[in-house]
Design goal:
This protein has 395 residues and is an all-alpha fold. It has helices at 2-31, 35-45, 48-61, 65-86, 92-105, 108-111, 116-119, 125-154, 159-173, 191-204, 206-222, 225-235, 242-264, 270-287, 294-322, 328-380, 387-393. It is globular. The two termini are 35 Å apart.
Length: 395
């Protein structure tokens, strides 16, 4: 059953990770101006913040989770196909509306993680979460890579085909999953709990609160990593294309780290893994400001990825360990939405300061966010939970 889950989830994540790259290439090929792709990407991202908690809430309560997951994945595949067909051809207002629909259903890609405890035995959950983290890393490499490969072989206007194909294949695998309903299904809840139930859990639980704040700081910095990598490639004389190589090295290191943690990391050691992961991640990124050549940059980026892989695995483990079973799906999608929002904010800030700070300043700023996250993790983890907030979870 885990094989079917990983196959479907990875294919859907390949599509989700590659859609931005395919979108830029498609718009560029059809209009000669990729600038409007930025507006389309924003239209995809913004609905995620609200739709993520709603989808997680629904999966935590539905008696037929497979049907709901399949319907959402089907909606994602259809909306993505329509987006790729219309981008650069149809009026921008229509394309933005389609992009918003994609953003409304895309959180199903992250929501699948919350279903693991329903069919994976407790003694195998640690390994399952490590493999789940690896799924995200594989998708981060394969999604943009496939889009770029199709653009090179068949032209940029055809990149959407592979992205839509991955989504369709992932959707077709989902009916093979046997997903039991949740063990605990609370009664009817109000709109506040539908939208904010995940926030309540994240805010009231000491560990989850510390984890959320620290990783938001980390991903706020990481939002600017792609731009900083391109600038670094230019600074060391390897050209802007070297930025893609550095991102690939980071993703490969993260994949190796996640696979290693799937065998060695335990829920008991997850808290330490967060602290160590943030510190090593931040130190490695800071070292990029001093690398003398491209091979050194490759090695340091791979080291940063090796730290990030276990960090992500530990994040998934701690969410599962600390969340009430009836809120796990909502906590996963809410936490993911907050990280995406923080990353988007960091990316926007990068556009403002990149020209002033340069590659070295950018890398040091990104590293400072990781180290600040490590400090916040250690401080907030020691604070007591909020009893007032905790009481609202059960209301």
């Amino acid at each position: 059953m885990l094989r079917f889950h990983l196959t479907a989830a990875t294919l859907l994540r390949v599509s989700a990770e590659g859609v931005a790259t395919a979108l830029v290439l498609t718009v560029q090929s059809r209009t000669g101006d990729a600038a409007s792709a930025g507006f389309i990407q924003t239209a995809m991202t913004l609905p995620y913040v609200l739709s993520g908690p709603v989808i997680g809430h629904a999966l935590d309560r539905t008696g037929r989770p497979r049907r709901l997951v399949a319907a959402l994945a089907c909606g994602y595949a259809v909306a993505t196909a329509l987006l790729m067909a219309s981008a650069g051809r149809s009026p921008l207002v229509f394309v933005l509306l389609v992009a918003a629909v994609v953003g409304c259903v895309e959180p199903v890609v992250a929501a699948l993680t919350g279903l693991l405890p329903r069919f994976v035995p407790a003694e195998r959950l640690s390994r399952a979460y490590g493999l789940e983290a690896s799924s995200y890393n594989v998708a981060a490499i394969a999604g943009p890579g496939l889009a770029a490969l199709v653009a090179a072989l068949a032209g940029a206007g055809h990149t959407g085909i592979v992205i839509v194909a991955a989504a369709v294949l992932g959707t077709l695998v989902l009916p093979l999953l046997r997903l039991p309903p949740p063990d605990v299904r609370p009664g009817r809840t109000g709109l506040a709990q539908v939208l904010g139930g995940g926030f309540s859990v994240l805010g009231s639980n000491r560990v989850l609160r510390a984890l959320t704040v620290s990783t938001m700081f980390a991903w706020f910095g990481y939002g600017g990593f792609a731009v900083a990598a391109v600038l670094l490639g230019q600074d060391i004389g390897a050209g802007p294309a070297a930025g893609g190589q550095l991102l690939a090295c980071f993703a490969l290191g993260s994949l190796v780290g996640a696979l290693a943690s799937s065998r060695r990391l335990t829920p008991e050691g997850a808290e330490r893994a967060v602290s160590v992961g943030l510190l090593v991640f931040g130190t490695a990124v800071a070292a990029l400001a001093a690398v003398p050549s491209l091979p050194w940059a490759w090695a340091v980026c791979a080291a940063a990825g090796l730290a990030e892989g276990p960090l992500f695995t530990a994040t998934l483990m701690l969410r599962q360990r600390e969340s009430p079973p009836e809120r796990l799906g909502q906590v996963n999608t809410t936490g993911g939405s907050l990280k995406i929002g923080a990353s988007a904010g960091g990316a926007a800030l990068t556009g403002v300061f990149a020209g002033t700070l340069g590659a070295d300043g950018m890398m040091l700023g990104i590293a400072a966010c990781q180290l600040a996250g490590a400090v916040l993790w250690r401080v907030l983890r020691r604070l007591p939970a909020s009893g007032a907030t905790a009481s609202r979870i059960t209301s």
